[in-house]
Amino acid sequence: MDRNIQAIISQMTIEEKASLCSGLNMWQTKAVERVGIPSIVMTDGPHGLRKQENPGDMSSKSVPATCFPSGAALASSWDRHLIQEVGRALGEECQAEDVQIILGPAVNIKRSPLCGRNFEYFSEDPFLASEMGTHHVLGVQEQGVGTSVKHFAANNQETLRNSINTIVDARTLNEIYLRAFEGTISKGDAWTVMCAYNLVNGEFCSENEYLLTDVLKKRWGHQGFVMTDWGAINERVKGLQAGLELEMPYSGPDRDQMIVDAVKSGKMDEAVLDQAVERLLNVIFKTYDARKEGFTYDKQEHHVLARRTAAECMVLLKNEDSLLPLDPKQSVAVIGAFAAKPRYQGGGSSHISPTQLDHALDSIREIAGDGVGFAEGYHLNQDVVDEALITEAVQLAAGKDAAIIFAGLPDSFESEGFDRKHLDMPESHCELIRRVAEVQPNTIVVLSNGAPVVMPWLDSAKAILEGYLGGQAGGGAAADILFGKVNPSGKLAETFPVSLKQTPAYLNFPGGKSEVNYGEGLFVGYRYYEAKEEQPLFPFGYGLSYTSFTYENIRLSKEVMKDSDTVEIIVTVRNTGNRTGKEIVQLYVQPLDSTVVRPVKELKGFEKVELQAGESTEVNFTLDKRSFAYFNTEIHDWFAETGSYDIVVGSSSVATPLRATIKVVSTMIPFCKVTRNTKFYELLAIPETAEFAEKAMNDSLESIKHMGALFAESMGDGGLLLLFEEVAKWKKYDGLRSMISFFGSGMSEADFQKLIDDLNQKLGL
Length: 765
Known about the structure:
Keywords: Carbohydrate metabolism, Glycosidase, Hydrolase. The chain has about 775 residues and is an alpha/beta fold. The protein has 21 helices and 25 strands.
């Protein structure tokens, strides 16, 4: 339905406009019936619908909905199409329950594996998180249901999440923590964004003008509205002026009155309020008009999708002697309380009431029949090594062909609201694995956890399947993989460390009582391990299959490209095993001669392909400027500097057998003005100033040579030569002021300033 929103706003009173800027209750926006503005409903996500029966009562029961795998699992599929399909199903369930906005996806970066909410987040890598979030958004919004990308921004811990001040440098903020949101806004066109509780560099996210206006609205062009996380408001009027449109939930009439008073007193221009109302109405009408009254969905069909999705997400971490897949004719001991009472989702606001629930024990019995025995092994709700339970499990395992132990992290070990203190599993789970493996060499461990764990029992298990929190159909999906109905194809979207001390943020997580310093900077996740040449337990992008793949060839469409161009990369991959399987082909870009600090390499492309036994295929990637760029803090933009870059492709961050080199030529100027401290290397990279910079640098070096006699007696000719070689190597990093300093040319300050002015004129600055 076409509406003249400007005309509607012109008819509204200041009080009516202000009323739209806060909720009606816990889950609804206010209506203004006099001018035809409806109320819309929103509800928690992101991996399932958590609509409460009574929107005004936070404690009321949730309606049944499909519980899909959590974000940590979904990202391990590395499958854009699958994520979009799940999003589409979520949108359908929202339509069936008359929900207009679902709160998700959650795209915050996994800065530390200790974060209690990591089960809900996608990845440690911003490109992967952005791609997963984008396709989640596209799927949901195809159904006319809005999404709310959260939690914007740099919300990477639960400790003091309401008050912690995140201190993060501009490059890290933009390259790591904002980059994960960018795709969901720019490519996915998410209709709403949810701001986080915390502060970023001294400003609450709810009133951070740099985040909400400069980045979100101006740079990324977001056309929707920003809402608070529940209760995340600080100063209401300041938030509105900074770009925050909607406060949730309703917290009384005072908030609206603050806005009214600010406008009437002249403290805030009414135009600011009008702009907020326009953004709100655009989304309210869009979602309200897209409602499908009487819509229903097939619950069984969505359950089947949940099972297929969970199987695509699970990661085979170890499979010694090709123990898996099991033969249904083998006798197996199923051990561990999680097999009968699964932990399939995280705790907190995303907790779903599932439409049905698969138990791994039942699913395994459906496949393997009477040869399946079960032992509880440990208590669900307490970490006590129960000798009677372990003895029962050991005796059962000893008499079977194989033992499958379901272990991991119980709810008390990880949840929204608190961070983990360690990476350990319950000792009762670890002791069970060790003791069973002593009598049963064919021991398989299936993990249920939302984040990495350390594995002191690694050598005891012959096979390990990372099941994450697989949703309501995770038990059936695990059985499908264990017995070969599905060939595992998931890969880790985060690094598994050997120990907590090995993690990048170990010295800076979770910070003090008021602030947390992101001291590791850009070196989050695999970026850190690669830079330090440390071997983690399992690297980023890692995952095994029941078949094998080889990477045979790589070619580029060009060997030199301008940053305004694109380059095509074609990679040949072959299934060299004896069964059909899926491989996730990963492309990383490695700068070879960067003038700024950069990670060794960064993920810039991936594709999941299915190949029959013996089949090969060509996988195509397109890279553009952003694939080679870093965030230049002087020009506040992405800058791909002139230089050589290796493009490496393979099956994980540490296995990249294919390599090709490309030269990138920048067409941008990496500074706003030439100054006395502009570096020679910056001018060398610009065609208009390269000749000048080369000559000026060489002249400066000649001056140094003439001064060499001062040092010759003490250093000798050989030492002097070495000194000069070192000085020459680093000379390009000097500022222009070296032309008139100690070893300078004798140029006057006036002539030097004229030179700078001439350079600026030549560059049009």
